[in-house]
Write a structure and sequence with these properties.
The chain is of the alpha+beta class and about 220 residues long. About 35% of the residues lie in helices and about 35% in strands. It is globular and about 40 Å long.
């Protein structure tokens, strides 16, 4: 009875409102993922890199499934950093595919710390493929790799991942990021390009305040 009542109530909610709810769920998950990943002694290197970050992308639930044909995917948000503070999120999806003898399932959280304007511009492309752009250096933080290493300090983007509570080194080579302007429009109620949100701070939704607060806390402002 309760299930049918819930379905009836959802039918009365405008489609745009439901879409915004989906996006707010992703923003809330990104907020929790950022807080959990950036706190604790194991995240000291990531916090140091965050202090001078130009932006950050958070993929709160990235699934990697393999049964002879492998694939990875999940929703992500990209947030820029201006002199006035962190911007609202632009929405992205991440996906990849692979072939070979492989069996397994992994659910991970991934944080991409964007250290340079070059790295931020690359992620703002409507489609960006890791490992395909020779002009963008990507380093992996975790699994024994410290943030003070030369590779991390010189990289445009540093990836930081956690699977089942453990910090791990995850390669994103072959993964493709695609912007989702439809989700941006539903969340902000207007047509906005990712560049307008991340580089100019346009768009206003009070639901992203906790996410911006978490990033400010772990980046020094």
């Amino acid at each position: 009875m309760i299930r049918y009542l819930l379905a009836a109530l959802l039918a009365l909610v405008p489609l745009a409102a439901r879409a915004q709810t989906d996006q707010q769920t992703l923003v809330d998950r990104a907020t929790l993922a950022a807080q959990e990943m950036l706190q604790g002694p194991g995240a000291a290197d990531a916090r140091n890199l965050m202090r001078r970050a130009r932006g950050v992308m958070i993929c709160p639930r990235s699934f990697k499934v393999a049964f002879f044909i492998g694939g990875q995917g999940g929703g992500c948000v990209l947030i820029g950093r201006l002199q006035s503070g962190w911007t609202g999120p632009a929405f992205y999806t991440m996906g990849s595919g692979s072939f070979g003898l492989q069996i397994g399932l992994q659910d991970s959280e991934t944080l991409l710390i964007v250290r340079t304007d070059n790295g931020l511009r690359a992620l703002l492309n409507s489609h960006f493929k890791f490992g395909a752009d020779a002009g963008v250096a990507v380093a992996t933080l975790g699994a024994g790799i410290g943030g003070a290493t030369t590779a991390a300090l010189r990289a445009d983007i540093v990836t930081f991942s956690r699977a089942r509570g453990l910090y791990v080194g995850v390669s994103l080579d072959g993964s493709v990021l695609s912007s989702d302007v439809d989700w941006d429009k539903a969340y902000y109620g207007q047509d906005l390009l990712p560049q307008q949100i991340v580089l100019q701070g346009q768009g206003n939704n009070p639901g992203d305040a906790p996410l911006r607060d978490v990033l400010a806390r772990f980046s020094g402002g």
